[in-house]
Write a structure and sequence with these properties.
The complex is a heterodimer. Chain A is mainly alpha-helical. Chain A has two domains: about 70 residues, no CATH class; about 240 residues, MetI-like fold, CATH 1.10.3720. Chain A is about 75% helix and about 0% strand. Chain A has 14 helices and two strands, in the order ααββαααααααααααα. In chain A, strands 1-2 form a two-stranded antiparallel sheet. In chain A, helix 2 packs across helix 14. Chain A is flat. By secondary structure, chain B is mainly α. Helix content of chain B is about 70%, strand content about 0%. Chain B has 15 helices and no strands. The chains are: A mainly alpha, B mainly alpha.
């Protein structure tokens, strides 16, 4: 119908197709308008605090002030190279990598153990699940307050009980060689119960009949784990690893409360470095450059895993 | 071992006599006890009188002469009622705005067709990856430019839109049969009326799941409010607790710290113990947060 119209009105041959396009666009836009209005509130906040914020990080990373009162000056990639040359930043990255691996691996392994042991539902396993899940609920700051005493030299909980067995104990939070590992213990304690939930959900997807067939064929518990359960849990693993990595970068409140990155920068992590640059040194340029680098690293990691997951689910 | 056998009495016959699963269970049992020790210490230390001295502070056996002095001290040193009020305002404010934004956006994605649906969907999806905590520096300067530095609104604002909530509501709305909406359409109900009277009432379980995740995560937020809030009377519980801990640590008042910590986490723990099943299933869905 729309194609026939120009032929019927030869006068409008040149104008009509364009008009038609515009008209079709406006009708489609009009039909879409209610949806846009419904999305508007969310989009405003996304624009301000997510995408706008990303844009500002990029811009801020390109500018610098010589002194806190001096005018802003374009410096290109100087901030990025200054951050990369800062031993405090590279130290924080190395610490954060150790921290990420050292918290993700044990907490995921423990989560798997907990899930396998508590997969069958009865009163005892429900109670144990709740006990293991409790640390997930409490603020990191509250966990820090409790562990500050646990790690207290001489009179603390750890020294009080373990000190009877071992004669010489390190100053858990005061020794630069030990402090990062002490911090890691808190994270493992806090997150294992969370990851357990995903494994519990994943275990429900393991087909009963395959397990029964394995029993009949005489597969022992180790064989069943290795050849049936673990392959079935692969997506869960991928997913939990992503969350654990994100947590290793973002969930570091205990560093703020307990160690302030010390002793001698041994527990300085990337987010704390960013905070220090922005709030303590008023160096927004360097803080933004560090944020940019961290965002780029995390986004490529998550994009990679999302693609793997999207391939599995067939996208949105 | 007899007791553990009883737990496995309805396991498949072939596996009932296997020893490895039982050892795993025993190990988990042991670790669950270890996991609870910090909480146990917190309660015991809260009730321990100061006269027991610093050397008995780590003792996990409860004191024979329990006292509430530590709770009283913590109550007087820290401004906990004020902190609790601030945290409640923050969590409630965020949740109320989120309910509006996620309902509207979730509906648009679930039921409407519009130009650019896929790119906009990805715009939301990307937010899940951009962890808000990392954007503290640009967001702090924005909040300051908006004149919201040192206000509770400034603490709430970055969380008003929630991609996770939008997806949750989209999923819930998609499950509602369109026949219900068609009936309302014939009766002349407007778009907002249909959302309000058909979609929202039928999606209460998803709203409550979202509420649990939203409130627990913002109840526990620390870094962002630490940066935005300057005045002591606007501190939320987490920031208040960290300041309180610093002060009390100087005087080695560990009983008081335990009492303060207990006060901060008690509301969450009590709610969890009451609605345990709901919490757990909500946290499972929160994976995509």
């Amino acid at each position: 119908m729309s194609l026939a119209e120009p032929a019927a009105l030869p006068v409008a041959t040149t104008a009509a197709p364009r008009l038609e396009v515009i008209r079709r666009f406006t009708t489609r836009f009009k039909a879409s308008l209610p949806a846009y209005l419904l999305l508007l509130p969310s989009l405003v906040f996304l624009a301000l605090f997510t995408y706008g914020a990303m844009g500002r990080v990029v811009l801020d990373a390109l500018y610098q002030r010589a002194t806190p009162k001096a005018p802003l000056r374009f410096v290109g990639l100087d901030n990025v190279s200054a951050v990369l040359a800062d031993p405090a930043f590279t130290g924080a990255v190395v610490n954060n990598l150790i921290y990420a691996v050292g918290t993700a691996v044990p907490s995921i392994a423990l989560a798997l153990l907990f899930a396998l042991a508590l997969a069958r539902t009865h009163a005892v396993s429900s109670a144990l699940r709740a006990a293991l899940f409790l640390p997930v609920l409490i603020p990191m700051v509250a966990a820090s307050a409790l562990f500050m005493f646990i790690f207290l030299p001489n009179v603390g909980l750890l020294d009080f009980y373990i000190g009877r067995l071992l004669p010489v104990l390190p100053n858990w939070l005061g020794d630069p060689d030990v402090a990062l590992y002490a911090i890691m213990v808190i994270t493992i304690w806090k997150n294992a119960g969370y990851y357990m939930l995903f494994f519990l959900a994943g275990l429900q997807a393991v087909p009963e009949d395959v397990m029964e067939a394995a029993h009949l064929d005489g597969a022992g518990p180790y064989m069943r784990l290795r050849h049936i359960i673990l392959p079935e849990l692969k997506p869960t693993f991928l997913f939990v690893i992503v969350i654990a990595t994100l947590n290793a970068v973002t969930q570091v409140d205990h560093v703020f409360v307990m160690t302030q990155g010390g002793p001698s920068n041994s527990t300085n992590l990337v987010l704390f470095y960013i905070y220090q640059q922005a709030v303590e040194h008023y160096d927004v340029g360097k803080a933004s450059a560090a944020t940019l680098l961290t965002l780029a690293a995390l986004m490529s990691l998550t994009a990679l895993s999302f693609r793997t997951m999207a391939n599995r689910d067939g996208g949105p | 071992m007899k007791l553990i056998d009883r737990l496995y009495k309805d396991a498949p016959l072939a596996t009932r006599n296997e020893i490895t699963p039982k050892l795993g269970f025993l190990l988990t049992l042991l670790l669950a006890i270890v996991w609870l020790i910090p909480f146990l210490w917190m309660v015991v230390a809260t009730l321990r009188p100061a006269s027991d001295g610093i050397n008995a502070m780590a003792e996990l056996m409860p004191s024979l002469t329990p006292t509430l002095d530590n709770v009283k001290d913590a109550w007087e040193i820290g401004d906990f009622p004020r902190y609790t009020l601030n945290t409640t305002i923050i969590c409630a404010g965020i949740l109320l705005v989120q309910f509006v934004t996620i309902t509207l956006a979730g509906f648009a994605f679930a039921r409407l067709n519009f130009v650019g649906k896929t790119p906009i969907f990805y715009l939301f999806l990307m937010q899940l990856m951009l962890v808000p905590v990392l954007l503290i520096v640009p967001n702090l300067s924005l909040v300051a430019q908006l004149g919201l530095y040192d206000t509770l609104t400034g603490v709430m604002m970055p969380f008003f839109a929630s991609a996770f909530g939008t997806f949750l509501m989209r999923q819930a709305f998609e499950a509602i049969p369109t026949e219900l909406e068609d009936a309302a359409l014939i009766d002349g109900a407007s778009l907002l009326q249909r959302i309000r009277h058909i979609y929202v009432p039928l999606s209460m379980p998803s709203f409550s799941a979202f509420a649990i995740i939203s409130v627990t995560s913002h109840w526990n937020d620390f870094l962002w409010p630490l940066m935005v809030i300057n005045s002591p009377d606007k501190r939320p519980l987490t920031v208040g607790l960290s300041v309180f801990t610093k002060t009390a640590e100087g005087t080695q008042a560990w009983g008081t710290i335990a009492a303060g910590t207990l006060m901060v986490i008690a509301p969450l723990l009590v709610t969890f113990l009451i609605f345990q099943k709901r919490f757990i299933s909500s946290f499972v869905t929160s994976g995509i947060k």
